[in-house]
């Protein structure tokens, strides 16, 4: 290895956070061509995990380090959301022993995850959703989650619970959604108000308000429901359930109707 290449790898390693992936597109911007990257592999500075993705030799890298690369190096508008974001913030359900962690990522329509991320075995169950669930975004809806040597962009609890309810009834159970909602006593009303006003899913908004009312959260009183578009007509969400007349959705029979008094 030439002195110049040795200096370049040392400089690269200084600005490359431990525990993260380096995408080839980012390496090229740092002046490291594929040919040079291959020479670093031969000299045992780098290891390739998939085509176009590298890690430092001897480094331990999880899906979080891959997501860091997607967000900070490739600048893709993809964030960690839903139940996974709630779990990281101590607000989700436990992961049953022996089951793989489900990692839920959200991105705008037309935005694809890099192949190296989807093809690599992170030992997780990956769920990637591209949907215009909200018409606009602001910083208060997200958080930078610190992982020590780096951070990743995740949904705030207010946004994450709405993203979680998006999967009802096919990929998210009502029972677990209620369990999660019960623990969300400290949500910020102003952030919720903005999210509910910009949320484009009538189903999500009705389920959220039903569960929030069912749990009798104090912050619910601070929401202005007149500014939240809830659509018209009845929505069948829970098959063989009963119709809640307040929010006009069918819910499982295990719930008490809001019209009959709360538990």
Question: How would you describe this protein?
Answer:
There is one protein chain. The protein has 2 domains: 3-56; 63-260, no CATH class. The longest helix has 14 residues, at 202-215. It starts with a helix and ends in a 12-residue tail after the last strand. α5 (82-88) packs antiparallel against α7 (157-165) and α7 packs across α10. It contains 10 helices and 10 strands. β2 (46-50) and β3 form a beta hairpin. The protein has helices spanning 3-14, 24-29, 34-42, 63-73, 82-88, 115-119, 157-165, 174-182, 189-198, 202-215, and strands spanning 22-23, 46-50, 53-56, 79-80, 101-107, 124-130, 142-146, 151-155, 242-244, 249-251. The model has no long low-confidence stretch (mean pLDDT 92). The protein has 263 residues and is of the alpha+beta class. 32% of the residues are buried. Strands 1-3-2 form a 3-stranded antiparallel β-sheet.
Largest β-sheet summary = 3 strands, antiparallel
Structural class label? alpha+beta
Q: Helix count, per DSSP?
A: 10
Poorly predicted runs are none
Mean pLDDT score: 92
Distance between the termini: 72 Å
Summarize the structure.
This protein has 10 helices and 10 strands. The protein is of the alpha+beta class and 263 residues long. Strands 1-3-2 form a 3-stranded antiparallel β-sheet.
Which characteristics define this entry?
3-stranded antiparallel beta sheet, 2 domains, elongated, 35% helix, 3-stranded mixed beta sheet, 263 residues, alpha+beta, 16% strand
């Amino acid at each position: 290895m030439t002195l110049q290449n040795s200096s370049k790898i040392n400089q690269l390693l200084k600005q490359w956070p431990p525990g993260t992936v380096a995408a080839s597109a980012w390496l090229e911007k740092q002046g490291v061509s594929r040919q040079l990257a291959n020479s670093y592999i031969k000299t045992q500075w780098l290891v390739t995990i998939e085509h176009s993705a590298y890690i430092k030799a001897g480094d331990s890298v999880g899906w979080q380090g891959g997501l860091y690369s997607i967000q900070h190096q490739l600048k893709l508008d993809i964030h960690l959301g839903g139940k996974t974001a709630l779990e990281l913030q101590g607000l989700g359900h436990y992961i049953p022993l022996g089951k793989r962690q489900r990692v839920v990522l959200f991105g705008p329509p037309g935005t694809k995850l890099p192949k190296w991320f989807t093809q690599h075995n992170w030992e997780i169950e990956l769920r990637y959703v591209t949907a215009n669930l909200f018409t606009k975004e602001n910083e208060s809806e997200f958080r930078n989650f610190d992982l020590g040597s780096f951070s990743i962009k995740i949904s705030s609890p207010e946004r994450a619970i709405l993203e979680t309810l998006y999967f009802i009834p096919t990929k998210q159970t009502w029972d677990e959604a209620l369990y999660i909602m019960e623990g969300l006593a400290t949500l910020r009303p102003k952030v919720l108000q903005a999210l509910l006003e910009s949320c484009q899913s009538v189903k999500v908004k009705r389920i959220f308000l039903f569960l929030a009312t069912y749990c009798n959260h104090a912050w619910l009183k601070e929401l202005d429901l007149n500014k939240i578009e809830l659509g018209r007509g009845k929505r069948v969400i829970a098959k063989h359930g009963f119709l809640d007349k307040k929010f006009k959705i069918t819910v499982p029979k295990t719930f008490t109707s809001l019209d009959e008094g709360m538990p």
